[in-house]
Amino acid sequence: xxxxxxxxxxxxxxxxxxxxxxxxxxxxxxxxxxxxxxxxxxxxxxxxxxxxxxxxxxxxxxxxxxxxxxxxxxxxxxxxxxxxxxxxxxxxxxxxxxxxxxxxxxxxxxxxxxxxxxxxxxxxxxxxxxxxxxxx
Amino acid sequence: xxxxxxxxxxxxxxxxxxxxxxxxxxxxxxxxxxxxxxxxxxxxxxxxxxxxxxxxxxxxxxxxxxxxxxxxxxxxxxxxxxxxxxxxxxxxxxxxxxxxxxxxxxxxxxxxxxxxxxxxxxxxxxxxxxxxxxxx
DNA sequence: TTATAGTTTAAAGCTACTTTAAGTTGAAAA
DNA sequence: TTTTCAACTTAAAGTAGCTTTAAACTATAA
Lengths: 136, 136
Prior knowledge:
Two copies of one chain form a homodimer. The first copy, chain A, is an all-alpha fold and 136 residues long. Chain A is 63% helix and 3% strand.
């Protein structure tokens, strides 16, 4: 029987309208319909959605994901190309993680900045550190 | 003298048009202009840009960043609120990091999947692992 | 003095969705 | 049996966060 779009949406944690949009953009070419035109999702379709979300999480544009989906349809001919695609994505996601760690450091600093300012009753205690601290 | 928008753009690693957009959205209320209307950025303005980028990196919408900028103008009255905002953002960024680590794991799996498939000459070696592996 | 490089604004274009509107379908309640 | 309700369908419009384009202005270097 498969899942309805509502069921697939719940299982995948993606809104139904986003799934429809992905299908329209060619990211889900294998989704079947019943005689009334209602979509029926298999477990494989849900796995495809997971891969799509994974690539999207690395910041890959929809059009590039669509190209990857096309590569999959090419079968064994595109194995090397798909391998390299994931090697590239690994580098991207590692960069993203290290950038977010820097962001976390900055946030930690701001937490300290405000905590000490609250204790002192005023932000002024951090004055004349202009090179290090902005007023924003 | 301060920096021109081009100089600020280079220093901050943000495009000039994005900076203009941020100013228009009220994220940079303190940027001065010369008599001809040309923007002049101080080092403090660049620091503000860094904080904006930091909040944006946590996925904070422009409108919420704008609210934070307004809080800053409230001075010491909003210290507690700003502190809590950064505590929230710390939790968000930590979640983002752990999610990206999961994404990296999935990519690692895909790298292994394609590497072994290339060695075998075909993706078929991974057949009947349907619960674990999708064809996409 | 005239290029050219950089600035300005407003408006249009783009991506990745989300929301709305109007219609269809199947099952449960009256 | 009828009707009502939730869930599905599509097309089109709306939104966020930029980017690009067009037309105008300005400072400096050749």
